[in-house]
Amino acid sequence: MKKLLAISLLAMMALSFVGCQNNSSGKNSEAEQSSDSSVIVSSDKSQTDDSGESSVQSVAESIAENSGSDNAFDFINFKSNEIFDIEKVDLLWGDSSSRAILENKCETYEFRYTCDGYEIIAYISIPTDTIKSGKPRKCILFARGGHWNYGSVEPDYLASMSAVSDRIVVACEIRGGNGVEGIDEFGGDEMHDVYKLIDLCDKEFDFVNMDDFCIIGGSRGGITTYMAARNDKRVKRIVVAGGVSDLISVYNEREDMREMLCGCIGGTPEEKPEEYKKRSALYWADEIKIPVLIIHSKGDPRVKYETNAVALYNKLKDSTECKFLSHDDDYHGINPSKDSEDIPEILKFLKN
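Request: output the structure for the sequence above.
Response:
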């Protein structure tokens, strides 16, 4: 699903630059093109003919030539006692033309930091404008879904999110999976890693503007997003797509997840009711005081619409600004198709 979204966005970014090249008025900047929802949501991938691919490649090369080589900020040489093992990431999804354009819109890095004695793997995508100007940029923290090795952070996905939102995007892996030591508690102590990443954005990364810090999460990432919104005042708005807000209902409705949840949390909802409620925004919705955008499909087979989206919205709408975008399909997460409102609505939400 994440790969589909990233490739769809990459394809449309490529076409948007071709359109910009052919625009004789020259009124729209690259940043305006990348944040235009009419460009973003289309899933047209018609870049396979030689002439189209050549045109896109020439535009990408032109952008690189005209962008200059003197950087005001260079993350690969970032100096801090808090982070280490910084490496630039090569993007893998899409064709070479799409990747060239995306790599000219932002740079993506893997790095590590320590939390509770563990080395946490994290990623950051930084818009090129920020790198060249050194001017602080607003930031999104992406809260990954899945558990253990399933649902790992994809750098291409973060780069696409950075390019279309024109924001810095950061994310971290989960303890107990994808090379990170520790135990995945499905909303337990691994939340410390998320708060530490917010600390880095706030105190170490002086190129991050914390004024409108946003978290976007889906599925299990909804737990992370809601908990951070409740506990960290630096979070100013959140987007949750297909997200879990009642882990007890998920346990009851998803027999295939029960063994995993018992292993992560230490028991069933009957045995550990407070632990399940601690991870479930439905039980403390009135403590979330920031703007919320909920996206959920009525036929979502993984996280049920009524018990997790509708139930939470009915509580949030009385305590904070909350918008609910529902769909009649069975999609799980953010839908990138040209007929979907998801991406335009997210961009509108970020601008408000």
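DSSP finds 14 helices and nine strands in the chain.
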